[in-house]
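Severity: low
Component: inverse-folding endpoint
Summary: output formatting inconsistent between runs
Steps to reproduce: submit the following structure tokens with default settings.
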């Protein structure tokens, strides 16, 4: 039977509703051909933990030295952490609670979470982790965690006069969609490629020039991620339980062999329409990728055993971020069998757009982030890949230092963390902002002008992954606007 355009669209629409059409990417099956040739040891991966909504940086890394804390407390009001009690605000304050509303256990006060870097910060500045980040303190003290100060989207080094004059600013500041896009691609909403995927373009092109099989892949466990899309490199999307199986091609769909046959014709057809050809190509790649991964992935219980208490956050049914990272662990575990040498992973957690209820909600979100990242690092260490996997946080923007009463509003510069065995940790990178109201770093209500660019962070990760300086400048066009010495921040 000839497949008409109308029949094609109708059938593919029905199948999409069944969940069969997944935006997996090309090449993973091809990567599997390299498994026998791959040394296995030449492996590196970066894992982006994206905090959707704009994380409140001021209640993530809290100013602790006397002068800075006073400025923090003056603008935060009843959203300020107390130094020596597990409470937010003045007096008895608001208790720090889990999502259930019960008092959060296993956490420490700010005074117990002051970070002591190997090299002291200028001017006697001190910062403490928020209580909910308690599980990250041992990683910092062990030199595995680094702090990236005042990071944000920038076109070039920017001062307050530039902001006032609207001179060379990133477009559409403070917009969720646009700043998420700019973080991941250096372009506003509608951009089609991200820097993680473009790293793959460069590394795979290098492999082809050496007559090697490309061994780079991008995988998201959190839906579509612009970060992972390159010009030639496409992202795979998996769920927390693994790839979506394409059983309808092998069995009856809705109890009908006819429908399964129709799906097969769509996937393997050679129609003349460009849309049909592209759909056929994508579906074929998706099925190949699903087959490869389903064949190579070991059972979750074997990779992340529940018997190990260190992995509890990766198995917590209430912690979707932990479960996403558990899936990343399974994919890394399969690296040798699929021949992967370079990978970029994307996971995310939402609900950070806290214009209200900051005191009640922010802590349990941070707890999920910290415990998941710490447990994932412990897994990499136990499995001998801690020096080959680097995890970093990202978010579209920070928040205002000034309270709006119950929360904080959209900001700009923010604090981020980098964690891994190759990280030069127990250190702060970048410049701590001046928190004085109206300072040269403050463009209003404690919105901070970033002093470190996303491009500098990405450029540093690119170098570690094996992307050359020239290639990094092609992927990150704004990176060339920053001084040569600061294009590689040196945290890994």
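Observed output (run 2 of 3):
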């Amino acid at each position: 039977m000839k497949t008409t355009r109308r029949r094609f669209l109708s059938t593919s629409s029905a199948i999409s509703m069944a969940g069969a059409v997944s935006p997996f990417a090309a090449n993973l099956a091809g990567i599997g051909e390299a498994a026998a040739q791959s040394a296995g040891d030449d492996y590196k991966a970066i894992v982006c933990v994206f905090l959707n909504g704009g994380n409140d940086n001021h209640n993530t890394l809290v100013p602790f030295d006397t002068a800075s804390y006073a400025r923090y407390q003056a603008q935060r009001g009843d959203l300020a952490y107390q130094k020596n009690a597990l409470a937010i605000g003045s007096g008895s304050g608001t208790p720090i609670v889990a999502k259930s509303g019960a008092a959060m256990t296993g956490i420490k006060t700010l005074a117990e979470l002051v970070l002591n870097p190997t090299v002291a910060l200028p001017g006697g500045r001190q910062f403490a982790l928020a209580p909910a980040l308690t599980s990250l303190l041992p990683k910092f003290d062990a030199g595995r965690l680094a702090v990236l100060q005042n990071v944000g989207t920038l076109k070039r080094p920017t001062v307050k006069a530039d902001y006032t004059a609207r001179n060379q600013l990133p477009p559409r500041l403070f917009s969720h969609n646009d700043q998420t896009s700019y973080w991941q691609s250096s372009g506003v909403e509608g951009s089609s490629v991200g820097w993680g995927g473009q790293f793959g373009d460069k590394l795979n092109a290098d492999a082809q020039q050496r007559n090697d099989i490309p061994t780079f892949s991008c995988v998201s466990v959190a839906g579509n991620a612009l970060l992972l899309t390159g010009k030639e490199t496409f992202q795979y999307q998996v769920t927390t339980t693994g790839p979506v199986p394409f059983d309808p091609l092998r069995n009856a769909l809705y109890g009908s062999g006819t429908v399964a046959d129709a799906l097969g014709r769509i996937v393997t057809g050679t129609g003349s329409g460009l849309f049909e050809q592209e759909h056929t190509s994508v579906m074929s790649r998706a099925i190949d990728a699903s087959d490869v991964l389903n064949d190579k992935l070991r059972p979750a219980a074997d990779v992340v055993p529940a018997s190990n208490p260190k992995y509890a956050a990766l198995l917590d049914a209430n912690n979707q971020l932990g479960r996403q990272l558990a899936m990343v662990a399974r994919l890394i575990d399969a690296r040798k069998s699929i021949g992967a040498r370079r990978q970029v992973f994307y996971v995310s957690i939402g609900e950070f757009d806290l214009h209200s209820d900051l005191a009640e909600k922010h802590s349990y979100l941070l707890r999920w982030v910290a415990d998941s990242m710490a447990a994932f690092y412990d897994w990499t260490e136990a499995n001998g890949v801690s020096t080959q996997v680097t995890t970093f946080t990202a978010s579209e923007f920070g928040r205002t230092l000034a309270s709006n009463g119950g929360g904080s509003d959209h900001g700009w510069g923010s604090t981020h963390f980098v964690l891994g065995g190759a990280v030069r940790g127990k250190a702060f990178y970048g410049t701590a902002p001046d928190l004085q109201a109206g300072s040269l770093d403050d463009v209003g209500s404690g919105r901070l002008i970033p002093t470190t660019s996303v491009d500098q962070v990405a450029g540093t990760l690119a170098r570690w992954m094996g992307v050359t300086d020239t290639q990094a400048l092609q992927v990150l066009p704004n990176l060339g606007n920053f001084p040569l010495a600061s294009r590689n921040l040196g945290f890994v």
